[in-house]
Amino acid sequence: MKWRTPLAWLQMSRKRSRLLVAMAGIAFADMLMFMQLGFQRALYDSNTRLHRSLRADIVLISPHARNISEMTSIPRRRLYQAMSFGEVASAEPLYTDFVDWKNPQTHLKTSILLIGFNPNKSVFDIAGVNQNLDKLKLPDTLLFDWGSRGNYTTTITALQQDKVVSTEIQDRKIQVAGLFLSGASFAADGNVITSDLNFLRILPHRRFSEISAGLIKLKPGNDPQQIATALRTHLPNDVKVLNFDEFAKFEETYWANNTPIGFIFSLGTGIGFVVGLVIVYQILSSDVAEHTADYAMLKAIGYPDIYLIKVVFQEALILAVLGYIPGFCISFGLYALTRSATNLPLYITLDRGASVFLLTVLMCFISGVIAMRKLRATDPAELF
What we know:
Layout: H1 7-14, H2 16-52, E1 58-61, E2 74-75, H3 77-83, E3 88-102, E4 109-117, H4 127-130, H5 133-136, E5 141-145, H6 153-160, E6 165-169, E7 172-180, E8 191-195, H7 196-202, E9 210-211, E10 213-218, H8 224-234, E11 240-243, H9 244-257, H10 260-290, H11 292-300, H12 305-342, H13 350-376
Parallel strand pairs: 4-8, 5-7
Antiparallel strand pairs: 1-10, 1-11, 2-9, 3-4, 3-10, 5-8, 6-7
């Protein structure tokens, strides 16, 4: 069977300049959608990395807590009450607060998230933390997140060589004795981890009995959801009981619903879609108008409307594929550039790539549907 070049491709490739303009427009729209969806996902992932690194099946927080950086304190005695359950293996406190941190390299002050915990019982699944637990037991000693946003090259190099770096937090001299990796987020430029006692030394206004969160680990074989339900019944209403996944979702929901950032990224994705739709419509509409006589002739010799409609849809699909390829490549480079500059977890995933491609196809098909109105009105009499 002899292969025939589709009419849609012959029409699209007849004017290369128009095809290139259409590809550029779709690539630009795809780039907008990729970047907005990427930033939105990076927003959620960066702000929940710390949550997902905790060793906990159930987390106790205040009902008034907004996110990890704004954790209204709860009574420490709630941990002792949770320990009365036979299914609970451990209940450990976590302290968090923003502090003024002096960059050891630039000596400029910035806000950074200070995290305190009991180093005798590690609550993190972070290698750099668990390897340096003994160091955290020393007074005024902490670990630095080398994924923090800012100029820390010299500091990181010194710490990698097992040197101790001195700086200040809240105008108190401290020692940085090691590194761990969590990464910057939209809420904080970085993180530092220390012992609960050092945390209280740095922030003397915080009380030992008032914790930011309670991390509960269950004995093997117990269902976290069932124990969480039992704790909600047993504990007073001054604590909120969440399982591990709900704790991460609590942070994600805050950024999605209680800040304008999530809405802005969604709006940006919609704007990219509309921009692409308008560009593709203009191209297809111009192509239909230019070939009105040709379409009329085809209808005159017996080709049905459905054949002509297929031609327009094929053109839309061709534009979607050809425009997506450069849009994907440009976005891949921009992701790498942004990731390097901001330390945000910005990656093109299979799901995101497929989502943007489907949006591109939908965008082009909607444009084709609108452009078809002119095509269906084509009359063979227009030949004469």
